[in-house]
Design brief:
heterodimer, A: 613 residues, alpha/beta, Alpha-Beta Plaits, FAD/NAD(P)-binding domain, five-stranded parallel sheet, 23 helices, 30% helix, globular, B: 351 residues, Rossmann fold, eight-stranded mixed sheet, 12 helices, binds flavin-adenine dinucleotide, binds thiamine diphosphate, binds iron/sulfur cluster, binds magnesium ion
Chain lengths: 613, 351
C-alpha cells in the first residue's frame, strides 16, 4: 500500500443505497422540487425531439394543466434547477412546458377511457378549482361518479376568476378544464354549498373539499367605511373583471400589498384606464412576497413600487375617497434576524380615485357545521392529515388552498392526486397509509455504443433564452392580449439544450474500478474523488472542491482495493457522461432514472409508463 | 478516447492560485489516449503541480519525443511552449533550447521506449551535462504506440499480454541516472497522485537535471496478470520511501540536516523540501546508499518509489560552461553577433 492511502478507516460514511427511490430522485432537482413530481428532463428531451404531443401528455399525466401551468406556474422547480447553481439562470422549465402545450397535436384520442360501467361509488367535489378537478381526473377513469358543486357559472376556480387573461387566455383554461369535465363529471355550476351536512346527507361515498381560500383580507383603518365605494378587495375585483362585471377603474389607483395578487391588480388597473397606478408595500422591497418575475413584469409596464409604506388612513373628501395616508417605515432586525417595522415618523399622502386591497386571503368555512365530527384547529382551519388529505371525519378530504391556506396551482394538483388515492382506498375499505401505492421507478443504461449515448450529453454554453413579448403599448390597450408570446420552435430547442438531463444518473460499480483516476481528471466540475472515508462534515471539506452545499448528497461507495472510497458530490454534476466515457472498465455508467409519482389511476398513466420502460 | 470536448464550465468553488488561475487553466486538449492510461494521470499530476506552484504557463517549454507518453504534452499546459521531436531525440532539443534561453522552465516528457531504447545515448548525455530540466519517463514497460512490444524497462519476469516471455534484463533508469550523476532522482506511480504531485513540485524547484521515472500502467497492452507494470502489481509491491512536503518560506537553515526521520533540503530558489523518510536504512543524500537500497529492494520484487537521491551542490550546464546570464534573445544583436572584424580577431588569435 502506498504512503498516501491513509489507513483504512472503519468509521465514516456508509455506502449510498441507490436502490432507495429517493436517492436518485433527489438528484433530479427539478422533479424533486415539483410538488407533482413532473418528469421535467424527460419532457424537455421530448420537446427537443419535436415530440410536442408526447411532451404534453407526459405533463398532463403529472400536473393535469400543462397549458395553464406553462404560463402561470409558481415553478418551485426553477430555483431548484442545477443549472442555476452553475451559472446564474436556471432552465426555463415552465416556459418549455408551454411549448409542449402550444405545439401539441390533438390529444382527444389520448385521453384515458372512461368505463361505461360505473363502479357504483359516488364522490362529491366541492369547488371547481384545480384541486377538485385533479381528483375528478384521477377518479373518473376508475369508474367513479363525480359530482362537482361550484358557486360560479364556470369551472377553473381562481385560475379563471383571478389570474388575468393577459397572463392566461381563457381559451387555454377552457381546453384543459373541459378535458376533465368531458370525462362525464356531473357539474352543478351556480350551486353554492351552504351546508356540508346537507351534502353529506346526500349519501356520497366520499367528499372532497376544494373550495379554496375565498376571502380577501380587509384593512380596518379610519375612512374605510366612508370610502367603501372606491375601495376594492383585490381578488373580488379581479373576479368581477373575469366575469366582465367591471370594465374600468379611476385614473389614479393605489394598490396596497406586495404579493402576486398586487401585481395582477396593478397590471389589470393600467389596462382598465388607470394612468397613475402605484403599488405600495409596508415592508422593504427585498421582502416582497411576489415572485421576482411578476415584479419584473409590472415594472416593465411602468408601474412604480413604493416600499416601506404602511397605510394609516383613507382620506375622504366630500364623502368620497381622495387618497391614502401612509406612515413611512423602516425595517430593523433583532439579533435573531427577526424583522420589526418601525415608523420613521414621516407621513405621505397619495391622492387617488380607487384603492385595490391585495393583502392576502383567508380561508372561511361558515358553511361547515362544527358538530359533524370534523375538527378545526388553529386559525379556524380544519385538521387534515398531510399524507392522506383526510379530515378527522372519515370520508371527508381536503386539498388545495382549502387544506392549508393559499398556495398555488401545482400544490393544489399535488394535493388532488393524493386525495384521489385516499378516496379510492377509502371506498374499497383499505388502509389509507399502509396500502398507499409506491412510486414507480426504473434505472436503465443509456449507452448505445463506444461513445454514443441515448441523450444529448454535450454541454450547451448558451444563457437562458428570454421569452418574446408583445409590444407593451399594444398589450396595455387590451386586457385580453397575452403579454408573453412564448418560445417559437427554434428558441425552444435552444433553451431545451440547456437542460443537463439530471435524470441520467452516474452509477458507480465499485468492484469494476481499478482506481486509475481517469474519471477524476476528466470531470469538468470536479465532482469525483477517491479519498479516505470520514465523517460527513470532514469528508465534505476534504474533497477536491469542498462540498459546501449540504442540501446535495454525497454518493459514497464501499471500500476500494486501496482502502479508499469513491465520493461524488452530486451538487454540480453536469450529467455529461465524460466519466463513463473515460472509464476503461465501465465502472461508471449513465443510467436513466425514471420516477413516476404514485397516483390513484396508474392505468391512466400511459405516457409515464411508456417513459419508464 | 473521448470524442466529446471537455466543456469550459467550471465548478464556481474551484480554488485559485496566486496568479488568479484555477487548475483548469493549466489543462490542454482532451487526451486521445486509451481511457484509463496511466499517462493521463501523470498529465493531471503535472497540471496539479504547476497550479500549486503558481507557475506562469508561458514561461514553460514542454519537450517530447515519440510515443503515447510523448504525445501527452498536448494534454496539459496549452498556454506553454512545446516541441514534439523525433523518436529518442528530445534530450538534444532540450539541451539546445536550454542553452539558447536559460530563463524558461524545461519539462521533458518521454517514454521507456523513447528513453531506454532509441534515446538511451541522448538521455545519458543530457544527465552527464547536467542540463537544467525536468525529465519525466512515463514508464509502462512497453511500446504502447506501436502496439505492445517489450521495452528495455520490462522486467525479465514479466510476460507479454499474449503470454510470451521476456528474454532480457531490464534497464533500471533510476540506477542509471544516479550512476551518471543526476542530482535529483525519483520514482513515482501514476496511480498515487498524492505521492506523485509533491515529487513533481520538488523537481520543478530543483536546479539541474531532475529525473522522475513514473510507473504508468498501459491499460491496453500491459495491465494483465503477468505484468509487473499493472495497476494491481504496482499497488501490491509499491514501497514508498518517503513523503515529501514543499515549504515555500525561506527559512534560514543549513543544506540538509537530519532530524530523526525528517530530512530538510534547501532548494535553489530558497524553498525548503521536507522529506519524511519511511525507511531508516537509506540516505537520499548519499548515492551509494540509494543504489544499495534500489538493488536490494528490486531483488525482493519491490517497486521502490520516492525521492531516491538528491544532491543540490553541483553546478548545472550553464554554470559549468560559464555562459552568458541572459537568454540569447535578450542579448543585443551587436554582442550576439559582433561582426566580421571580431571574427577575424578570434581567428587570428587561434593561428
Ligand atoms: C390574483 C391571484 C393570482 C394568482 N396567480 C397564480 C399564478 O400565477 N400561479 C399559481 O400557481 N397560482 C396563482 N394563484 C393561486 C392559485 O390560483 C390558487 O392557489 C389555486 O387556484 C388553488 O386551487 P384550489 O383548487 O384549491 O382552489 P380555487 O382555485 O380557489 O377554487 C375554489 C373554487 O371553489 C369555489 N367555492 C368556494 N366556496 C364554495 C362554496 N361554498 N360552494 C361552491 N363553490 C365554492 C370557488 O368559486 C372556486 O371556484 C393566484 C391567486 C390569486 C388570488
Ligand atoms: C526513428 C523511429 N523508430 C521507430 C519508431 C516507431 N516507434 C514509435 S513509438 C515507439 C516506441 C514508443 O515507446 P515508449 O517511448 O515507451 O512510449 P509509449 O507509447 O509506451 O508511451 C516506436 C518504436 C519511430 N516513430 N521512429
Ligand atoms: S438542468 Fe434540467 S434536469 Fe437538471 S435540474 Fe435543471 S431542468 Fe432539471
Ligand atoms: S457526468 Fe461524470 S464527468 Fe460529467 S460532471 Fe458528472 S461526474 Fe463529472
Ligand atoms: S475511470 Fe473507472 S476505473 Fe478509473 S478510477 Fe474512475 S471509475 Fe475507477
Ligand atoms: Mg512505453
Amino acid at each position: 500500500m502506498s504512503s498516501t492511502d491513509v489507513a483504512v478507516k472503519s468509521r465514516g460514511m456508509r455506502p449510498t443505497d441507490i436502490t432507495d427511490p429517493d436517492y436518485f430522485h433527489k438528484v433530479v432537482d427539478c422533479q424533486w422540487a415539483c410538488p407533482a413530481h413532473t418528469p421535467v428532463p424527460e419532457y424537455i428531451r421530448l420537446i427537443a425531439q419535436g415530440r410536442y404531443t408526447d411532451a404534453y401528455m407526459l405533463n398532463w399525466e403529472s400536473n393535469v394543466f400543462p397549458g395553464i401551468l406553462g404560463r402561470t406556474c409558481d415553478r418551485p422547480c426553477e430555483p431548484a434547477c442545477r443549472r442555476g447553481r452553475l451559472e446564474d439562470k436556471p432552465v426555463a422549465i415552465c416556459r418549455l412546458k408551454r411549448v409542449a402545450a402550444d405545439f401539441r397535436g390533438d390529444v382527444s384520442g389520448l385521453m384515458p377511457k372512461i368505463p361505461k360501467k360505473k363502479n357504483g361509488k359516488c364522490i362529491a367535489l366541492l369547488g371547481a378549482g384545480p384541486a377538485s378537478l385533479t381528483v375528478a381526473r384521477d377518479l373518473m377513469p376508475l369508474g367513479y361518479t363525480c359530482v362537482l358543486f361550484e358557486k360560479d357559472p364556470r369551472g377553473g376556480g381562481l385560475m379563471r376568476t383571478n389570474i388575468p387573461s393577459f397572463r392566461l387566455p381563457e381559451k387555454v383554461i377552457n381546453e384543459e378544464v373541459d378535458m376533465i369535465l368531458g370525462m362525464g363529471v356531473e357539474a352543478r355550476f351556480g350551486h353554492e354549498v351552504t351546508s356540508l351536512k346537507a351534502v353529506l346527507d346526500e349519501g356520497f361515498d366520499g367528499v372532497f373539499v376544494g373550495t379554496g381560500a375565498p376571502r380577501g383580507k380587509d384593512l380596518e383603518i379610519p375612512g374605510r367605511e366612508e370610502a367603501a365605494r372606491n375601495i376594492h378587495i383585490g381578488i373580488d375585483w379581479l373576479t368581477s373583471i373575469a366575469f366582465e362585471h367591471v370594465k374600468k377603474i379611476g385614473k389614479r389607483v393605489v394598490v396596497i400589498g406586495g404579493g402576486n395578487t398586487a401585481m395582477d391588480c396593478c397590471r389589470s388597473a393600467i389596462r382598465l384606464g388607470g394612468k397613475d397606478v402605484r403599488v405600495t408595500v409596508r415592508s422593504p422591497r427585498a421582502d416582497m412576497k411576489a415572485s421576482d418575475w411578476e415584479i419584473e413584469d409590472a415594472e416593465r409596464e411602468g408601474i412604480p413600487i413604493f416600499d416601506n409604506h404602511q397605510p394609516s388612513e383613507f382620506i375622504v373628501e366630500n364623502g368620497k375617497l381622495a387618497g391614502v395616508k401612509f406612515a413611512r417605515m423602516s425595517a430593523e432586525y433583532d439579533k435573531d434576524g427577526r424583522r420589526k417595522l418601525i415608523p420613521t415618523g414621516e407621513e405621505v399622502v397619495f391622492e387617488c380615485d380607487d384603492v385595490l386591497m391585495a393583502i392576502g386571503q383567508d380561508n372561511a368555512f361558515p358553511w361547515i357545521e362544527r358538530d359533524i365530527g370534523l375538527e378545526f384547529g388553529e386559525w379556524e382551519m380544519p385538521i387534515v392529515d398531510k399524507t392522506t388529505m383526510m379530515s378527522t371525519r372519515p370520508g371527508v378530504f381536503f386539498g388545495g388552498d382549502a387544506g392549508w391556506g393559499p398556495e398555488n396551482i401545482i400544490w393544489a394538483v399535488a394535493h388532488g392526486h393524493q386525495a384521489a388515492i385516499s378516496i379510492d382506498l377509502h371506498c374499497s375499505g383499505q388502509s389509507l397509509t399502509a396500502s398507499r401505492p409506491a412510486p414507480g421507478t426504473s434505472l436503465v443504461s443509456q449507452k448505445m455504443g463506444m461513445h454514443e449515448w441515448s441523450y444529448a450529453n454535450d454541454y450547451s454554453e448558451d444563457s437562458r433564452v428570454a421569452v418574446p413579448h408583445v409590444a407593451t403599448k399594444k398589450s396595455l390597450k387590451n386586457l385580453k392580449v397575452e403579454v408573453e408570446l412564448g418560445y417559437d420552435v427554434e428558441l425552444a430547442l435552444e433553451e431545451a439544450e440547456r437542460c443537463l438531463n439530471c435524470d441520467v444518473q452516474t452509477v458507480f460499480v465499485r468492484n469494476l474500478c481499478i482506481e486509475c483516476d481517469a474519471c477524476v481528471d476528466i470531470c469538468p466540475v470536479d465532482c469525483i474523488n477517491f479519498t479516505a472515508n470520514g465523517e460527513e462534515q470532514e469528508l465534505r471539506q476534504s474533497l477536491r472542491v469542498p462540498a459546501a452545499n449540504a442540501e446535495q448528497d454525497l454518493y459514497i461507495s464501499d471500500q476500494l482495493k486501496t482502502g479508499r472510497i469513491m465520493a461524488k458530490d452530486e451538487d454540480l454534476c453536469l450529467h455529461c457522461g465524460l466519466c463513463a466515457e473515460r472509464c476503461p472498465t465501465g465502472a461508471w455508467d449513465m443510467q436513466k432514472f425514471t420516477y413516476v409519482e404514485r397516483q390513484a389511476n396508474p392505468v391512466g398513466q400511459v405516457n409515464c409508463m411508456a417513459y419508464i420502460s | 478516447m473521448t470524442y466529446m470536448k471537455k466543456p469550459n464550465v467550471r465548478h464556481p468553488g474551484l480554488r485559485k492560485n496566486d496568479l488568479g488561475l484555477t487548475r483548469r487553466d493549466y489543462e490542454g486538449l482532451v487526451s486521445t489516449l486509451c481511457a484509463g492510461c496511466g499517462h493521463d494521470s501523470i498529465s493531471a499530476a503535472i497540471i496539479e503541480a504547476c497550479f500549486e506552484l503558481d507557475l506562469p504557463a508561458h514561461r514553460l517549454a514542454k519537450l517530447s519525443g515519440i510515443g503515447c507518453s510523448s504525445k501527452t504534452p498536448t494534454y496539459f499546459l496549452n498556454r506553454s511552449h512545446g516541441f514534439n521531436s523525433v523518436h529518442g531525440r528530445m534530450p538534444s532539443i532540450a539541451t539546445g533550447a536550454n542553452l539558447a534561453n536559460r530563463d524558461l522552465i524545461y519539462l521533458g516528457v518521454s517514454g521507456d521506449g523513447d528513453t531506454a531504447s532509441i534515446g538511451l545515448g541522448q538521455f545519458c548525455h543530457a544527465m552527464r551535462r547536467r542540463v537544467n530540466m525536468i525529465y519525466i519517463v512515463e514508464n509502462n514497460g512497453t511500446y504502447g504506440l506501436t502496439k505492445g512490444q517489450f521495452s528495455a524497462t520490462s522486467d525479465r519476469v514479466s510476460k507479454s499480454k499474449k503470454g510470451e516471455a521476456n528474454l532480457f534484463e531490464a534497464i533500471d533508469l533510476c540506477t542509471l541516472a544516479i550512476h551518471l550523476g543526476a542530482g535529483f532522482v525519483a520514482r513515482g506511480f501514476s496511480g498515487d497522485k498524492g505521492h506523485l504531485v509533491p515529487l513533481i513540485k520538488a523537481a520543478f524547484r530543483y536546479n539541474g537535471f531532475a529525473f522522475i521515472d513514473i510507473v504508468s500502467p498501459c491499460v491496453t497492452f500491459n495491465d494483465h496478470e503477468d505484468s509487473t507494470k499493472s495497476y494491481d502489481y504496482v499497488r501490491a509491491h509499491n514501497e514508498a520511501m518517503d513523503r515529501l512536503d514543499l515549504v515555500p518560506e525561506r527559512e534560514e537553515i543549513t543544506a540538509h540536516t537530519e532530524e530523526g526521520q525528517t530530512t530538510t533540503v534547501r532548494m535553489h530558489d530558497g524553498s525548503l523540501m521536507r522529506l519524511h523518510k519511511l525507511d531508516d536504512n537509506y540516505d537520499p543524500c548519499d548515492s551509494e546508499s540509494a543504489l544499495t537500497t534500489l538493488r536490494k529492494r528490486y531483488a525482493k520484487g519491490q517497486v521502490v518509489t520516492g525521492l531516491l537521491h538528491i544532491d543540490n551542490t553541483d553546478a548545472d550546464l550553464h554554470e559549468l560552461l560559464g555562459t552568458t546570464k541572459q537568454p540569447l534573445n535578450a542579448v543585443p544583436m551587436g554582442d550576439l553577433c559582433p561582426g566580421n572584424a571580431e571574427l577575424a580577431k578570434i581567428n587570428k588569435s587561434l593561428r
